[in-house]
Amino acid sequence: MENGVILKIVFKKNCLSYDILKWFIALDLIDFKNIRYKKGNKPAKEIVYSKEKFDMILIDLLKNEDRFIFEAYDNQYDFCLPKKDNSFLLSISFNGEIFIKNKTKLFKFIDDIFNNDFGYVAFICHNDDITWQNINDLDYIKAKNQPYEHLKLIPHPYFSGQMIVDIEQNPGHSHMVNDLWFGSCWAMWFGNDYYQYIPENLIASFKDGYENIQLDSGARRVLLYEDIFSFDKPENRIIQKKFRDITGMDVVAHDLMNRPPENIDPTIEILNGHFENGGTKMMKRYLNNENEIIEKSKAVKVEIREIEVIENRWKTISINVVDI
Fold first, then answer.
1. What structural domains and CATH numbers belong to the chain?
2. Which tens digit of pLDDT belongs to each residue from 235-250?
3. Three-class SS of 194-246
């Protein structure tokens, strides 16, 4: 995704409707080619994009489905909306030049979401920033001709003798915990309900960035530096790290990650490592006799997928179904 910009918004449960999204959709920032959507445990469907189909499918999903994934995309950029049990995660990627032309309108759209107390947290950053700050595979970084001399290496947690990048040292690394984002990047919005994790006074106390304002609702908008494309300047990396240090982003995220999981009987498990067929991730989906996803304790078989992550996308390299 050359020169791409990423926008992510975590909406609160029952706080997202088509009426909220239609203003953004009307900006027409992406020349969509296809639509892909999935209802609950049913197989995904893919169709050629049209504005009428986009509206009809998205309205139906928002109105009638408890869990779904909706995606519209072209060759590089996409609009992705998965609905989970407690939140929506709206994820949009688009061309950097188009973003700059529409920046004022996009900021108003996001400000309105947080002024209406619809969101937990949101952020905008350059795709290269969030991508390379969160990759721990040194060989892949070298293969893509990315600078690596400054990176700190640590032993691989599972494989003796192997080293990986310690992304915890990267100012722009992110954590997604319980469907909430914890990180530091160019532009960020924090809703009132987010303050139970990171207190508002800590966010307000950060004075080293370009902008830190309180919205009418009490939510806050923070810009770390002026130019989104200047993320890799040393002075901006310093600001990025200061923000996460002052707010305690990593302390809170690590504490949440280390708590016992709430779901002790999962339907899906995702493991990291280096597996038999070359995958770096393994996804286990627990199934009943009808091949429907079910809790692990009730499953009669498990589908095991090995996955390789290539340019921030998942590619399945093997699938096996094993009786339990």
1. 4-31+74-131+170-258 (3.30.70.260), 135-168 (no CATH), 268-323 (no CATH)
2. 999 999 999 999 999 9
3. HHHCCCHHHHHCCCCCCEEEECCCCCEEEECCCCHHHCCCHHHHHHHHHHHHH
